[in-house]
Amino acid sequence: MKPGERKSESSPLDIQLFVSPRNVTDDDLRGRSVVVVDVLRSSSTIAAALLNGAREIIPVQTPAEAGELASRSGRKQCLLCGEREGKKIDGFDLGNSPFEYEPERVVGRTLIFSSTNGAGAILRARAADHVYMGGFNNFTAVVKRVIEDRKPVVILCAGKLDQFAIEDFVCGGRFVNYFETRIRREVILNDGARAAALLHRHFDGSIKSLLQSCNHGQVLTSLDFQADIEYCARLDTHPVLPVFIEGKLRGYHPDGSPLGEPLISPA
User: Fold this and answer.
1) What confidence tens digit (pLDDT) does each residue in 150-197 have?
2) What is the 8-class DSSP label of residue 203?
3) What is the pTM of this model?
4) Do the domain assignments include residue 2?
5) Is the residue at 8 inside a domain?
C-alpha cells in the first residue's frame, strides 16, 4: 500500500485484545491504533482531568520518576498525581480519584501521573501508531476516532498487577461489540477479543454492579471510594479523546480540536 493510501472499506478489520500489558510486544502494536483501558480508575481520571482543563498528562512508571521530572521542570508548573494500592502517594498533590481533578486544581497545569496499572499500560503502548485512553465515560469519542484511523486495533487492558481484571476485560468487550455491529466491514478477532465481547454481552446493563463486585471495586469500597465506582460506570459522560503523543497525553474534542497546549516535556 502506498503512503497516504486508504484501505478499502471491504478489507477486514483486525482486532486484538490483551488482558494485561505483560506479554504484549512492540510487534503486536506497530501499525495499529491502541485503546488502553483502565476502568478503575485511570481511564476516568485522565478523561476528567483533560476535560477540566489540564494542559497535558505525563505518565511515568514510578513515584521516584515523577518526583525527578517535577524537579527538573519546575515544581510550580506541575502537579504530582497518582496512587499505590488505591491511595494517594505520600507527598503527591492528587491521587487517582476523578473527583480530585476539578478545574480549579488542574486548569492550565501539567500533571505527572503514576498509577499502579494505568500509567504503565499507556507507556507499554508507545510503539503503536496511535494510542488513546478509553473507558465507559468517553466510549463514543474513542470508538469514532479509532474507526477514522482505518488501522488494525489493539485493546490493551491495564489489568491488575499484570493479571486479569474483569472490569477492563468487559469494557474492552464493549469496544469489540461496537466494532462488530457498527462498521460495514468483516471483523477478525483474536480469542481475547472474542471472549471479551461475549462477557460484555452478559454484563451489559449491569456495569455498575460489576464494578462494585469485582476485586478492585471491593478494594475501593473498603477505602470509601464508592462514588468513584459509580462515576467510572457511567457511559459517555466525557466528550474527550485523550491521545498519547511524544510521551504525553493531550486532550482533544471529538471533532479533533485540541483542549489545551503542552507545557513541559518528559525526560
Assistant:
1) 999 999 999 999 999 999 999 999 999 999 999 888 999 999 999 999
2) H
3) 0.93
4) no
5) no
Neighbours of 144 (CB within 10 A): 14
- Report the number of distinct structural domains present in the chain: 1
CATH of the domain at 237: 3.90.1560.10
User: How far, in Å, are 7, 31, 222, 260 from residue 255 at the CA level?
Assistant: 22, 23, 39, 14
Question: Quick one: which of 92, 125, 117 has its CA closest to 215?
Answer: 117
CB 204 within 8 A of CB 9: no
Residue 261 pLDDT > 70, yes or no? no
Cα 216 to Cα 63, 85, 86, 171, 234, distances in angstroms: 21, 10, 9, 15, 17
Q: What is the pLDDT of residue 1?
A: 40
Classify residue 261: in a domain, yes or no: no
Is-contact 100 48, C-beta < 8 A? no
Q: Which three cell numbers stand for residue 151?
A: 488501522
Residue 49, C-beta contacts closer than 8 angstroms, at least 6 positions apart: 57, 81, 98, 101, 106, 111
DSSP string, 71-131: HHH-GGGEEEEEEETTEEPTT-SB-S-GGG--HHHHTT-EEEEE-SSHHHHHHHTTTSSEE
Distance CA 176, CA 232 (A): 19
State the Cα–Cα distance between residues 142 and 118, nearest whole angstrom: 17
Q: Do strands 13-18 and 187-189 pair parallel, antiparallel, or not at all (unpaired)?
A: parallel
pLDDT range class, residue 9, cuts 50, 70, 90:
low
**What pLDDT score was predicted for residue 263?**
52
In angstroms, the first-to-last Cα distance of the chain is 35
Residue 144's domain comprises 13-252
Residue 257 lies in a domain: no
Supply the DSSP symbol for 214: S
